[in-house]
Amino acid sequence: MGTRPPIILPLQKTSPEQVWKAATRAIQDHGVLALPTESYYALAASAFDPIAVSRVCALKGRPEGKPILVLIGERVHVDQLVATVPRASQVLMDRFWPGPLTLIFPARPGLPDDLTAGTHSIGIRQVALPLLIPLLRQTGPLTGTSANYSGQKPPRTPDEIDSALRGQVDLLLDGGHTPGGPPSTLIDTREPVRLVREGPISREAISAALTAAGIHLSS
Prior knowledge:
Blueprint: E1 7-10, H1 16-28, E2 33-36, E3 41-44, H2 50-60, E4 70-72, H3 87-96, E5 101-106, H4 113-116, E6 121-126, H5 133-139, E7 142-143, E8 145-146, H6 163-166, E9 171-174, E10 185-188, E11 194-197, H7 203-212
Parallel strand pairs: 1-9, 2-9, 4-6, 5-10
Antiparallel strand pairs: 2-3, 3-8, 4-7, 5-6, 10-11
Helix pairs in contact: 1-5
């Protein structure tokens, strides 16, 4: 792993079956993938594999104590990752998923330590990118942290991924140019429900959805 240039698969020219097979093989071997999301390229590894998640943290030079976002392709995967589903998260999932909204849940015990970083919480986003949904349904939940060294600019194309970092991933799924833009809106759905980061979905939209359900969004 990470000792030779990655296998590169152009998503527009590769059959879904070939992509799924290559991704599954890499994940089963504790691999790390670089793949496109709705905004930037991300480093993806099985959310249940402590070896692979540790590799992601090492590749990024990620500070201790900072948990890693998880991407899912369908809502059924939530139950594999969380201890409970707060009512606020149910309301927001129904209203805004799939889409650019990351929700923080109480984490299910037994997840890799590097994934939750000692917070006992897990951030999850259901993706809306058509190229990514069938892959995630095949592989299960994957990490979704941006494919850059911590503190550096996230890449919108495979060529923008730092060459040293790119040389350490096992499979690069080339989906061309991604849109960039702000990261997803981030909401902690545990009590008190609070906005951690405003992104494409505004605070006003989040607050309106919660208020309609009788839930207060803390300042």
